[in-house]
């Protein structure tokens, strides 16, 4: 299994947790809870402040692994997760000196 590039994750990178629970109302008005999976799953919003070489490594990884699962180590807790890309990374040039901000959205599988 491929691994996500081990680049510094910027302050503001984070994880959202989903427990897979949907709440709706029965005809009687009582709450009805339905759980769609047995354990919590994360969606990661990762931001990298990087140079052109680091930007290219993320985009190359996306090009080769956009449809497959891969390992990702989240710096927020140091744990490694099996994830996939939720969408294409967004890239923004922030200085004429070649500094880039790359934002990636990953979802745990």
Describe the structure.
By secondary structure, this protein is mostly beta strands. It has one helix and eight strands, in the order E-E-E-E-H-E-E-E-E. Strands 1, 4, 5, 6, 7 and 8 form a six-stranded antiparallel β-sheet that branches. Strands 2-3 form a two-stranded antiparallel sheet. A hairpin with a 6-residue loop joins strand 7 and strand 8 (100-108).
Oligomer: single chain
Largest sheet: 6 strands, antiparallel
Distance between the termini: 13 Å
Mean pLDDT: 93
- Compute the CA-based radius of gyration: 17 Å
Shape call:
elongated
| Approximate strand percentage | 35-45%
Brief synopsis:
This protein has one helix spanning 52-65; strands at residues 14-18, 21-25, 31-35, 41-50, 70-73, 80-85, 90-93, 100-108. It is mainly beta and 109 residues long. The protein has one domain (14-108).
Keywords, please?
109 residues; mainly beta; six-stranded antiparallel β-sheet; two-stranded antiparallel sheet; 1 helix; 8 strands; 13% helix; elongated
